[in-house]
Design goal:
This protein has 2 helices and 5 strands, in the order ααβββββ. It is an alpha+beta fold. The protein has a single domain, classed as C8orf32 fold (Roll).
């Protein structure tokens, strides 16, 4: 991801990561704790796509999971994989993979 929140606002368009970063910045500027959520969204239970949304903590309440891209709260169609401060903490394809190592004997 290379688009900043400022760039997405200036362009007037973006992807879920952009909208989530804009929402994070807005919440944090108002003193509201907020965290970035990385996961998947099922489209009517048919297909899954990687997605991002935001958790916001309101004093005296639980964390609220909000999707600024679709202007809605998280539902059962969302699959949470990781949370962090922003995209850099939890990119959808980070980590390591373990598999079988084949050796060729000569």
């Amino acid at each position: 991801m290379t688009t900043t929140a400022d760039e997405a606002l200036e362009l007037g368009r973006g992807v879920c990561q952009d909208f989530s970063h804009i929402m994070l910045a807005a919440c944090r500027s108002q003193g509201l704790p907020a965290r970035y959520v990385s996961g998947y969204l099922y489209n009517s239970g048919q297909a899954a796509a990687s997605h991002a949304w935001v958790d916001v903590h309101i004093a005296g309440h639980e964390w609220l999971s909000l999707d600024p891209t679709h202007d809605c709260a998280q539902s059962s169609e969302y699959v949470r994989v990781a949370i962090g401060r922003d995209y850099a903490d939890v990119p959808p394809r980070a980590g390591c993979s373990r598999g079988m190592l084949k050796r060729r004997w000569m």
